[in-house]
Amino acid sequence: MKRISIFILAITALITSMLQPLSKTAASQNDGMTLDDILATEQEKNNKYLPQIEEQMSQFIAAQNSENSMNTASSTGSGELLTSYDLSGLYQVYIMDHLFITAVKETGSFADAITGDIQWKIPIQTNNGNIGLATMYEKDGKLYHVGNTIGEAAQTWMITEEAIRNAIAEADLADNAFLSMQLAHSYLYNTTFVYLTTTESEYLVPFSYYAEQIRLENGKLYTVSEIIDIFDSYFDEQQLIDNPNSNGGAPFRQQPRILSGQDEAPKTTIPVTTAVLVILVSVVGILLLVRYMKKQAG
Question: 110 Cβ partners below 8 Å, 6+ apart?
Fold first, then answer.
């Protein structure tokens, strides 16, 4: 009897010793970072570019003052002088595939719909007291200031740490659940997403120009599938696939699909002022890209 007991204890000890490393490994794989860690990591990415950014912004202000020029592109098409900038609010944003809904539906991955094109956004203020964002691109490790956007056209780009924290707090996610964070912008939909991956799932916090028309709540945490369902119910990218030479505006469906929990689809007719503003925003974006390309060619 004593020998049997010793044998059982030995087997138990052996099994325990074999399982313990596996348990530790599994636990380490499930351990994420805190939101503070994620935000600190993002800040570290930006810090190495701070000297270049400050130099570029200082040179821009000095040049416009000496020339008395009006170089700031705004949603109204009029010019304003840039007077100050805030490096503490600087952030990186990745550009999304033009037809990102189609891309996500085809691959099942939101991450794959994010391109390698990066912009830096720096909060600015003009001589009229308006706020906006300066835009910089990177090429071969060097940054280039390619333009500024102010007014309503800049609103969907303005992502703050406070807005991200508020979205997370309302969703009540575990504090150490985070794996990564990226900011990604869709020019087609004038929408910036905070893309968060966690140990459990993937989430998006949208800041969209079309939030009201598509019943989207800006600054709220959604799952990736929820965002794709909402956008796909109001927009039909097949229109742009079938008509590549169209004006390129957001492809609203003639009759939106009614999602679960919705009584009826809201009207998606865009007011004339909204349509004009969207066109102007698109033109500003194109002009910035053209200006950037000319700089590189020169």
Answer: 104, 195, 202, 204, 224
Contact 144, 292 (CB under 8 A): yes
Nearest to 241 by CA among 251, 227, 256, 253: 251
Q: What angle do CA 110, 155, 90 make, to 5 degrees?
A: 75
Alpha carbons 160 and 142: distance in angstroms, whole number: 25
Distance CA 110, CA 293 (A): 28
Helices (H), 132-206: 161-171
Residues 6+ apart with CB under 8 A from 64: 70, 71, 81, 82
In this predicted model, what pLDDT tens digit does every residue of 90-148 receive, in sequence order?
999 999 999 999 999 999 999 999 999 999 999 999 888 889 999 999 888 888 998 88
The larger pLDDT score, comparing residue 59 to residue 246, is at: 59
Helix, strand, coil % (nearest 5) of the chain? 45, 25, 30
Give the residue with greater pLDDT, 246 vs 181.
181
Q: Which tens digits make up the pLDDT trace of 17-63? A: 444 443 333 333 457 899 999 999 988 888 888 999 999 999 988 88
Q: Which of 253, 248, 251, 246 is nearest to 283 (CA)?
A: 248
What predicted TM-score, i.e. pTM, was given to this entire model? 0.74
Among 162, 184, 176, residue whose Cα is nearest residue 114:
184
Domain ranges of the chain: 35-297
**Tokens at 153, concatenated:** 């056209």
Please name the amino acid found at residue 165: R
Residue 209 in tokens: 């120009």
**C-alpha–C-alpha distance, residues 3 and 286, integer Å:** 83
Return d(Cα 49, Cα 185) in angstroms, integer.
21
Q: Are 171 and 81 in contact (CB under 8 A)?
A: no
Give the rounded distance of the alpha carbon of 286 from its chain centre.
Answer: 19
Listed in order, strand segments (DSSP E) in 77-190 are 82-85, 91-96, 114-126, 131-139, 142-150, 178-186
